[in-house]
Amino acid sequence: MSTQRVFVARLHGCTVFDPSGDRLGKVRDVVVVYRKSDPPRVIGLVCEIPGRRQVFLSIGRVTSISQGQVITTGLMNVRRFEQRGGEVRVLAELVGRRVDMADGSGNAVIEDVAIERNRIGEWGVTQLFLRRPKTSASPFAKGATTFATWGQVREQHRPGEAQSAEQLVASYSELKPADLANTLLDLPETRMIEVAEELPDDRLADVLEEMPEDEQMHILEQLGDERAADILDQMEPDDAADLLAQLPEGRLQHLLELMEPEEAEDVRTLLQYGPDTAGGLMTPEPIIMSAEATVAEALALIRRHELHPALAAAVFVTLPPYETPTGRLLGVVHFQRMLRYPPHERLGAILDDLEPVQATASATEVARMLASYDLVSLPVVDIAHRLVGVVSVDDVLDYLLPDDWRSYDEEEATGSIPVVRPAPGSGA
């Protein structure tokens, strides 16, 4: 086995392979246990396998840890990782923790943790990368960095107590919202709230959209009404409406009053419809243009980075006004059709013949139309044929899938028997 020193922050995201070179997953954290006089001992890795499920990989199953990869014996416990008493996750609980220097020279913050294998085959914490408090008043200044062994520091707080989550947020910066949502749900509750508080509003909004509604509500309640309203402003209107619909009427109205007026108005519109109707599933912010607009202008709009891919698949052409509820819907132009025409072509001349659905149409009817015509999105109109929104295929999938689809457990569905996870002290 490799004996090189490995820093955990760099280990995060490394691919895990079996002996044949097949990918098993990616490393998300390192699990250690404390000892009375010696540095913490590594007992395993938290790995993310296909399906975004986090599982435990015993360190005894690891044959090599090298630059950018981890090699295993091929045996992996496929049960969802559940942290046990006495276990500490390095990235989730140690990184970002403030410590005192044993020599009395002050304090520092742990920015990274090095692990290494000793002569008897055990992996343990051997070194800490620390940052001292800054000495300059400049907002851009940073404190000096230094290395220390575990015995040269004293923790101010034990893992699980309140601490800064800045370093952890930085280590998760490259994760997609769905992956970060699963990662947060696997953290201890206190740590999860700390990270949520540290995330920017737009990033947290994206993450909450990937969580079950009960978890969304729990996190928002912990953040307070003012911050909750800011997060709701950043969420897609249909997701915000779904979340608010679960709240008591008094709290719902209070949060709507705290939201930005334009965002709150979109949510109020969606709350008028039943959750199992086209109106309840739609987003009220499709791309809307006039019949006189050109292909070039439409392509420029759908290139916007912040636009959801499903919404960028088509432009909806209406009579004025061009904000929902619009004037009468004239038709739709899909982006592939735009690519077949010169940039100066008017949208009104290349409309697709697509029948919209009424806002009161059932979710089943919407799903049937999307499937029948191989559509990514479908316009929604009121009784006056005015465009009020658009239902995308991901909205319908969210509705049709079971409530617990985000926590779907592959082992229960397949009936596979996982390798039994050894106890922390077994050395397996």
Task: Explain this structure.
The protein has helices at 8-11, 90-94, 166-171, 177-185, 189-198, 201-208, 213-223, 225-234, 237-244, 249-258, 261-271, 278-281, 295-302, 335-339, 363-372, 393-400, 410-414, and strands at 6-7, 15-17, 23-33, 41-49, 53-58, 62-66, 69-72, 87-89, 98-101, 107-117, 123-131, 145-148, 153-155, 288-289, 314-318, 329-334, 357-358, 377-381, 387-392. Mean pLDDT is 84; it is low at 158-163 and 409-428. Helix 6 (201-208) packs across helix 8 (225-234) and helix 9 crosses helix 11. The protein contains 17 helices and 19 strands. With 428 residues, it is an alpha+beta fold. Strands 2, 3, 4, 5, 6, 7 and 8 form a seven-stranded mixed sheet that branches. Strands 1, 9, 10, 11, 12 and 13 form a six-stranded antiparallel sheet that branches. The two termini are 15 Å apart. The chain has three domains: 1-172, SH3 type barrels (Roll); 173-277, MgtE N-terminal domain-like (MgtE N-terminal fold, Alpha Horseshoe), CATH 1.25.60; 288-400, CBS-domain (Roll).
Give the arrangement of secondary structure elements.
Elements: E1 6-7, H1 8-11, E2 15-17, E3 23-33, E4 41-49, E5 53-58, E6 62-66, E7 69-72, E8 87-89, H2 90-94, E9 98-101, E10 107-117, E11 123-131, E12 145-148, E13 153-155, H3 166-171, H4 177-185, H5 189-198, H6 201-208, H7 213-223, H8 225-234, H9 237-244, H10 249-258, H11 261-271, H12 278-281, E14 288-289, H13 295-302, E15 314-318, E16 329-334, H14 335-339, E17 357-358, H15 363-372, E18 377-381, E19 387-392, H16 393-400, H17 410-414
Parallel strand pairs: 2-7, 14-15, 17-18
Antiparallel strand pairs: 1-10, 2-3, 3-4, 3-8, 4-5, 6-7, 9-10, 9-13, 10-11, 11-12, 15-16, 18-19
Helix pairs in contact: 4-6, 6-8, 8-10, 9-11, 15-16
